[in-house]
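In this section we walk through a basic example: taking a raw amino acid sequence and producing a predicted 3D structure, encoded as discrete structure tokens. The instruction is simple. Fold the sequence below.
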Amino acid sequence: MKSINIFILSLIFANSFSQEIAEKEIKTDVNNVTVYIKGAQITRKKSIDLAEGKTILKFVSLSPFIDAKSIQVKAEGQLMVLSVNHQQNYLDKLEKPQKLIDLETRLQDIDDKIKLENTHLSILKEELAFLQENRDIGGKNQEISVSNLKDAAEFYSSRLTALKLKEIDRNKAIYELNKQRADIQNQINTLTSKKEYPTGEILVKVDTKKSSRVSFELSYLVSNAGWFPSYDIRAKNINEPVELIYKANVRQDTKVDWNNVKLGFSSSDPNVSGVAPELKTYYLNYNTLPPVYDKSTGTVSGKVIDGSSGEPLPGVNVMVQGTTIGTITDLDGNFSITVPNNATNLTFSYVGYVQQTQPISNSRITVYLNMDKMELDEVVVMGYGTVKKADHTGAYSGRTAGLDIEKSEEPRIRGNSSLAIPTMQVSKQTTVNFEIETPYTIKSDNKSYSVDMAVYNLPAFYQYYSVPKIDKDAFLIAKILDWEKYNLLEGEANIFFEDTYIGKTLLDIRYASDTLNISLGRDKNVSVSREKIKEYTSKQFIGTKKEDTRAWMITVKNSKNEKINMVLLDQVPVSTLEEIEVDVQKITGAKHNVQTGEIKWEFDLKPGEDKELELRYSVKYPKYRNLIIE
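The resulting token sequence is shown next.
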């Protein structure tokens, strides 16, 4: 009896251990996307019928670029989440878009045609070689009649001509096919990267107390997505407010389309430059040069090339390091970006390639990117900082506890069409979120999509600004008060003044104080000249000292039909030694900053009025020393 009981118990244990936990494959849609400066947070929702007991839920057909550490699962129902795991499925490749499949089919057809033409060309070359090798029609001692020679010459000529003409036709056909192939390949490159990627999968092990329908919310972070801000700034004249259109430039190559999703943007992670110049302090000492001003780096352009194939790379993300100023390369790999005066580096990133940082040493840069050899599951990208949980459930919804969410008071919102796109701004301690309330679609095609997020009418005080020592053009500056409430980020801006496109400028709020200065570009109707006054420019010896005198005449003319306010800057050197004396002799009513040497004039000019300003100073120093003076 005892042995029978032991046998029955062993059967029960064996049967229980032999039972495998049920696995259920779950396909979901993307519901919400919050796009960061680098990366994006994806949220998927699904209601699932579960039986009592333990079940492994396999969420499939996900992006291969999931950050495993960011995965969070929220479930509403009588169950317990036991574990969450992430894996790559190398057997089931991600489904390609039909447009990409069609292009690849066309590419294969052209490759087959090129191969066929090359085969025909090879046969022609063989025939030509055979014809040339058998030109002799008689032996050394054999006489050839004139009739035979004529027939042979006619045959050789006609056959050679026919073969050569066919060869030309085949080469022409191959040339045209190669052109078609290059066009199709370039189009494919705009839709996808060169590598094939596995699908991402998330396995969630749950224990259900009783059979029920459970709502799941799955959220995670993905790389190969991001956005950067840009602006359209319109000023009809210097008497009306500035219209500022706030735009998000978003692109993604996560290998999964975002179809009709609730889209949000988070800040958590221009050919003549419209950037007004800045003076450097002119320190005066022996054997030192006056400050040098490089005006060529306001705009940096260049090309990004595949380091292995030498082919241009379209869709490469180009960012000014440490800022949100960015752009992407075009179909030929070219880019152009406006950079702030103190920018030092540009960062280049592209899916499947090693990110590269290049110093801004010239106005044109050529960059070679190399493919990343690392396995996908060994790469983890965190491009925006530390993730914080929103609540005790661990749900990651793009918000943190204590947020103050309120409707925008002044902005008018619009989209790519004439219909308005409602939006909300979520203000945080150091970041801002824009939430587009109308569903939006962003395809995984590596293209840049522009989304107009907000339109502001900004009250502005207009002032013309010029530093003729560096640049004789006058820049129109719009001064904006209370700019902090508009939640702006630094970025490129297209400038429209008096209904005319002026060019690009830079909206840089990193160093703005209580007033935000927006450069609206150059205005040729305000002219500034700076000429040396020769009769006051001299060098003489006074006792044991040399005295160098410098004088400049600055002329400003207002050719506009309205009064303007003008700020004009120049400078005198600042002595760093007691034996060097700088004497400011004439500044025509300007303000003199003794510490920096800055000379500042501020005045109004009536329509058609001009004004002359004189700057004169002298420098005394020991006559046995040499001093370089401007």
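Looking at the output, two observations stand out. Residues 305 and 311 are 6 Å apart (CA to CA). The longest strand covers residues 515-532. In the next section we compare this with other chains.
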